[in-house]
Design a protein that fits this description.
Elements lengths: L2 H17 L27 H15 L16 H17 L1
Helix pairs in contact: 1-2, 1-3
Length: 95
């Protein structure tokens, strides 16, 4: 994983924790690979909090997540969000 991917991953996880409702004990320092596959619901993100997460993602990464990416599949887990952002940021860098 390169530095850009590490930054994306760390930032997405920080925003999920910010917008989730899990107790601080869940906010462990070391991220396990399995954590990236946990659903947003498991992270304490409900539909209302998902809107704030979407806003924060667009604000922090300076991208607009297109309507065709606003699907349950894209917002299923941290990993699916990270993969979406990588594509958007790559497209942004090319244009």
């Amino acid at each position: 994983m390169n530095r850009d991917e590490e930054y994306i991953q760390a930032t997405v996880m920080e925003l999920i924790r910010k917008n989730g409702a899990l107790p601080s004990v869940e906010q462990k320092e070391t991220l396990q690979a399995a954590d990236l596959n946990r659903t947003l619901t498991e992270w304490g993100v409900n539909s209302f909090r998902a809107l704030y997460l979407l806003y924060d993602l667009e604000e922090v990464f300076r991208v607009q997540i297109p309507d065709n990416c606003l699907t349950p599949e894209t917002f299923e887990s941290p990993l699916t969000i990270i993969n979406c952002l990588k594509v958007l940021l790559n497209d942004k860098a090319i244009s």
